[in-house]
Design a protein that fits this description.
Structural class: alpha/beta
Radius of gyration: 25 Å
Number of helices: 14
Length: 584
């Protein structure tokens, strides 16, 4: 059935139906409070959003607005178009209207934009001026990182209200080339590879996954591999991961990583050993404590004895402390310098990379500048610094931003590309890397991508395009690169066809222009279709089921984690479809 929106009416071929108007409606940015004035109001494919962080962040933890509504005999509902952060835990929120609690607890939104409806108790809106409050009720967490909750649109309306459309995803089509080319794209005569250091890290990968991927990394002409710090975490009696950085690694873990180091050397790949001393730890390292530093150093000393020469200390996604950014940077520089100098006494060829707390952007905000200028003065000059680009996950990565950041921090940069990482969410980002300026290779010494988890095998598709860019940024063409990545991974036309369809189903957060590691284009499209025509949504589920079956038929022994991701997404869509039918 064809529909057209015209001046507040919904015209149907069978007649005219009035669209239900809300009693009152806001964009997230219309509400007071929140972090829109700190981090901007455009995010995750929407403009005019707002978001709230934990209680310790004061005004950034709460949204509020005052309003009045006309009397009505119909029940009224609060509608929220919102999403949760992409952390593994769900952010707890509280919603109040006047003195009535509308909702409290773990929010009911996923990592993609979705709409929920809450009934407003009878007699809740007697006032001439009413107040809506949405609060993040998590006790701890810094601004800029989870736990956070983001709001796009809010409305108070009757039961049959629906928000109007916001956006549709841009369509990305993969063109499969007729012939296989040398890959990565060959350099022009006389040119050197764009980045001297080219590689990836694991994201919570197991030692077995590192061993699987080392030959692939070498085939893509990458020369660098870093472990994820969470790959070294232990498990408690309940099976939960714990960062116990002060304890020696288990003998089993040491044995497995010896094999990883050995295989990396065999393929001429520099392995970088990384340990985070604070993230997710019940006992964060105290930079003032020499015992803590000694306990931390034992891991680097062990890895060095196994022949490792590259090391990384990361203090990303943690606080710089109560004394402020400059004091925090001074503590961080002291820690890095002590570990680095100890390692260099044993081997002058040791290299160190530091991931600072402000690792993105141009570094010019007052807090970031104070931190980075302190690093410039106090961090050992031979230490490299990680930088993720113009944002934590940037849609565009520019030379200008990189130069500005480097001019402030005064250290050599290695780009930490936060793509195609999904932070363990059941989604895939398979499209090519795009919007990275070739001149970045003139500013940074290295380029390291951050992968999917647990899907290390299907990760080879986007990783290939990152490798192609890192090798030859001047000659990089994303459309050619993704086509060649598929050609090199598939053996037959039918295999290439199913990988093409898979990439088009999951083109990635950057191509989709919805920058969230947990963004799921399959669920997004399903929700779009559900809001327009449930039959289209049912047909779409069948389409994805067929895609999963073709993937299983063409690749019976590989891409099993990708097949599981499809299964989970199909189940999510079916559950949502069933819930929608039950409501009716």
């Amino acid at each position: 059935m064809k529909t057209v929106w015209i001046t507040g009416f919904l015209l149907l071929l069978s007649g005219i139906v009035f669209a239900v108007e809300p009693k009152v409606q806001w964009n997230g940015s219309d509400l007071k409070g929140g972090a829109k004035d700190v981090y901007g109001s455009t995010s995750l494919g929407r403009s005019n959003v707002n978001y709230i962080y934990s209680q310790k962040n004061g005004e950034l933890s709460q949204l509020s607005t005052e309003f009045s509504v006309e009397e009505t005999s119909e029940p009224l509902y609060l509608y929220l178009d919102a999403l949760d952060d992409d952390a593994s835990t769900v952010c707890e929120i509280e919603i109040n209207i006047n003195d009535s609690l509308i909702f409290s607890g773990k929010n009911e939104f996923g990592t993609n934009w979705s709409i929920k409806r809450y009934e407003i108790p009878e007699g809740c809106l007697p006032k001439e001026v009413n107040k809506l409050t949405i609060r993040n009720i998590e006790k701890s967490g810094e601004s800029g990182v989870p736990p956070w909750f983001m709001v796009s649109r809010i409305a108070i309306a009757t039961e049959t209200f629906k928000f109007g459309p916001t956006q549709t995803l841009p369509r990305f089509e993969v063109l499969i080339p007729e012939e296989e080319r040398e890959f990565p794209e060959p350099l022009a005569e006389g040119e050197k590879p764009g980045f001297a250091l080219r590689g990836t890290k694991g994201w919570n990968w197991t030692p077995e996954q590192y061993l699987e991927e080392i030959p692939v990394i070498a085939e893509y002409k990458l020369n660098f591999l870093m472990n994820c710090y969470s790959s070294l975490f232990s498990k408690d009696e309940n099976g939960r991961w714990r960062n116990e950085w002060w304890r020696p690694l288990s003998e089993e873990m040491k044995t497995k990583y010896r094999e990883v180091f050995k295989k990396a050397r065999q393929y001429k790949i520099d392995f970088c050993f990384a340990v985070h001393p604070q993230l997710g730890s019940p006992r964060p390292l105290n930079p003032q404590s020499m015992k803590d530093i000694d306990d931390y150093y034992q891991h680097f000393e062990w890895a060095q004895k196994q022949g490792v020469q590259w090391f990384s200390i990361s203090l990303d996604d943690v606080s710089w402390g109560t004394e402020g950014p400059a004091a925090g940077a001074s503590d961080h520089a002291k820690l890095v310098n002590l570990v680095f100098e100890r390692l260099r006494k044993n081997d002058p060829g040791v290299k160190m990379i530091f991931c600072p707390t402000p690792y993105w952007g141009d570094g010019t905000s007052p807090d970031h500048r104070a931190y980075l200028e302190t690093l410039a003065r106090e961090l050992h000059q031979d230490v490299y610094v990680f930088w993720t680009g113009d944002a934590v996950v940037p849609e565009f990565m520019t030379v200008e931003c990189a130069k500005t950041y480097k001019d402030i921090v005064q250290h050599r940069l290695i780009i930490w590309e936060n793509y195609p990482v999904n932070d363990s969410a059941p989604t895939l980002h398979l499209g090519p890397i795009v919007n990275r300026e070739a001149g970045l290779a003139d500013v940074a010494d290295g380029y390291m991508s951050n992968p999917l988890y647990p899907q290390n095998e299907i990760n080879r598709i986007p990783l290939a395009t990152c490798a192609d860019f890192a090798w030859n940024p001047k000659g990089y063409d994303p459309n050619r690169s993704i086509g060649q990545a598929i050609v090199h991974l598939a053996q037959t036309d039918s295999q290439r066809a199913v990988l093409k369809e898979l990439v088009e189903a999951y083109p990635g957060m950057i191509l989709s222009k919805i920058i969230s590691t947990g963004f799921n284009p399959v669920i997004f499209r399903f929700n779009e279709k559900m809001s327009n025509d449930p039959q289209l949504a049912e047909d779409y589920i069948k389409q994805i089921e067929n895609l999963r079956q073709k993937l299983a038929d063409e690749f019976p022994d590989t891409f099993n984690d990708a097949k599981e991701t499809l299964r989970l997404n199909i189940q999510t869509m079916k559950d949502q479809m069933q819930a929608s039918k039950s409501e009716k």
